[in-house]
């Protein structure tokens, strides 16, 4: 049995772009022949419904970089999250340095009021100006999301304290300064957290076992005779690519991801995921 773990943003789908039809066709063909397709994403579970609704059937998902998973036909299961103390410690440090951050929970994203971060968004737009239309599209989508789809509270940590039932899956940072990102990555990494870059100008702070590598190993324990494939593009995919039997990077992946890959698939815009599955894993009838 083959099990394909596939990242979403930058791999299965370009941000804000249409998903190539071949990707959906490949999932259907793969699962019809008895293999498994698993979305493995940094997105929270509540951010996956739109793409799952586009499938002709269903598939397993691993979300929040391995903080939880959901098998077909079952409810989500949460495996790892940040302690309240670790959230309070990290938030205090970020507030002191006036960093824009938001907290992913099992019931959505919480952040301080949107208007507090207009200068941060302006700086991020300027940073991404060199990307042209793509950079502008990214910021339009991000700002719309932060303004309309997040819960805005005066103090996210106080909110977590008042709602102990919430699980803080990760703290995400967006910052225009590369030097500041490098500093934060070093300063926030310790034995109780794992800090890594994700997408453009972002850092994520998670529980150390909330990684795609841990998630792959946990999932594959259900299929001891299976052969695993991982398809990705970014730094948060490196742990997955190290854990699988066959590591695949799409053409638009970062250089260090390509270096770890056994196979380079086509660009995500060209349906690299679907083309790889059809060329390497689908048995001709």
UniProtKB/TrEMBL annotation:
Top-rank taxon, per record: Bacteria
Swiss-Prot/TrEMBL keywords: Hydrolase, Ribonucleoprotein, Ribosomal protein
Gene Ontology MF term list: hydrolase activity
GO CC list: ribosome
Gene3D superfamilies, per the entry: 3.30.1240.10, HAD superfamily/HAD-like
Top-level taxonomy: Bacteria, Bacillati, Bacillota, Bacilli, Lactobacillales
Protein name per the record: HAD-IIB family hydrolase
